[in-house]
């Protein structure tokens, strides 16, 4: 079974930040809040679909 992936824009909307903030954090730190994307052959980034749940679960603790 293949892992479900979402775009940076979709992740940004779900966690209420700008997509540029996610890309900047990735560029500076190599991750966004501990999450690392999958880089496709065309250079675009895709994030695990469960990333939103992981981020929101960490914020509620």
TrEMBL record:
Taxonomy, superkingdom: Bacteria
Protein name listed in UniProt: Helix-turn-helix domain-containing protein
Provenance organism: Aromatoleum tolulyticum
Lineage: Bacteria, Pseudomonadati, Pseudomonadota, Betaproteobacteria, Rhodocyclales
